[in-house]
Amino acid sequence: VQLQACGGGLVQAGGSLRLSCAVSGRSFDVMGWFRQAPGKEREFVAAINWSGGSTLYADSVEGRFTLSRDNAKNTMYLQMSTLKPEDTAVYYCAARGRGLTVLRPHTYVYAYWGQGTQVTVSS
């Protein structure tokens, strides 16, 4: 099983980026994104269920980020808009184990992790 995150980069404040997380090996009911800034703990960003009909966002990104997935491609997307310098971090995609369908914001309930992609927002 492999989660491959990509799409990060350098963008000016107010700009947009779209991250992708391609999954190989199997599919997952619940997937999410976390981020970790230098010197800080990894924090929850957003999570989505299998159908895409249920999403959960951190307060800090609510209204600016949109999470979606294409199950035919086994890929999850995070559309980030109105980016702020405080959004600068390494972004990780993650997935919960088989049969776990509840959206949770805690790192310890996600068993599978991608390698991370750097997002840098300049002021």
Notes on the protein architecture:
The protein contains no helices and 11 strands. By secondary structure, the chain is an all-beta fold. Strands 2, 4, 5, 6, 9, 10 and 11 form a 7-stranded mixed β-sheet that branches. Strands 1-3-8-7 form a 4-stranded antiparallel β-sheet, with no helix packed on it. The termini are far apart.
Helix percentage: under 10%
Instruction: List SSEs in N-to-C order.
Output: EEEEEEEEEEE
Backbone CA Rg: 13 Å
In this structure, how is the largest beta sheet organized?
7 strands, mixed
Tally the helices: 0
Identify the overall geometry: globular
Give the end-to-end Cα distance, rounded to a whole number of Å.
37 Å
Contiguous low-pLDDT stretches (5 residues minimum) are: none
Strand content: over 45%
Number of E-state strands: 11
Mean pLDDT: 96
| Helical/strand content category | mainly beta
